[in-house]
Write a structure and sequence with these properties.
Layout lengths: L2 E3 L2 E11 L14 E14 L2 E12 L9 E12 L2 E9 L19 E11 L4 E12 L15 E13 L6 E12 L8
Antiparallel strand pairs: 1-2, 2-3, 3-4, 4-5, 5-6, 6-7, 7-8, 8-9, 9-10
């Protein structure tokens, strides 16, 4: 955090690189100073309330079978009050490098991924139930840096309900997840 006052805190992180090569450099690198990634954060926390926002290169973790370690350009918001929590995110589906493109905040399921989640702690934080919905896709011939390119584009969504318990102080902890998904691996054809 580079600025904190009372219940508020704000942060900024960025990484830059300077390339000076005599040889030709492969894209997306360029011969100059480049912003590789960045992240703006803001947080308000007081008593049982919390609100946190992030804009830039965010990391999304919802569950093992929905969204797990998704790092992309976009934004997320998390709010909590007492035992209840609600979160949402939107990110670009293509992996970008540097300052290429937008902030990833559009709700277009053709080239973005977005989702919402809500959770509730029960029995003095010994059990938690969480619901997750995620939707999105990729454009045909998406030139995503460092990832496999799909000729026809993809589109899909997933819904999940997750129940975790820990009634005996790590002697018997459980996690149950039910997921339902729809996925089209090639949006250029008529098969779904």
């Amino acid at each position: 955090n580079f600025l904190a006052e009372g219940s508020w805190s704000f942060g900024f992180r960025a990484n830059g690189r300077y390339h000076d090569e005599e040889r030709a450099i492969k894209e997306p690198l360029e011969d100059n100073l480049e912003l590789v990634d960045f992240l703006f954060t803001g947080k308000y926390q007081k008593n049982k309330s919390m609100l946190e926002t992030s804009l830039g290169d965010v990391l999304i973790n919802e569950s093992r079978n929905t969204v797990n370690n998704l790092s992309r350009r976009g934004g997320k918001i998390v709010t909590e009050y007492g035992a209840a929590g609600l979160s949402g995110f939107v990110v670009r589906s293509d992996q970008i490098y540097g300052s290429d493109g937008d902030y990833g905040l559009e709700l277009d399921d053709k080239d973005h991924i977005f989702g919402v989640a809500g959770d509730l702690d029960l029995f003095k934080n010994r059990a938690n139930i969480k619901a997750v919905y995620v939707s999105g896709g990729t454009e045909p011939d998406d030139e995503s840096f460092g990832l496999w390119d799909v000729a026809g584009g993809t589109k899909g969504d997933v819904r999940a309900v997750i129940l975790t318990t820990d009634f005996f102080k790590q002697k018997l902890a459980t996690s149950f997840e039910y997921d339902r998904s729809n996925y089209d691996s090639d949006t250029s054809d008529s098969i779904h």
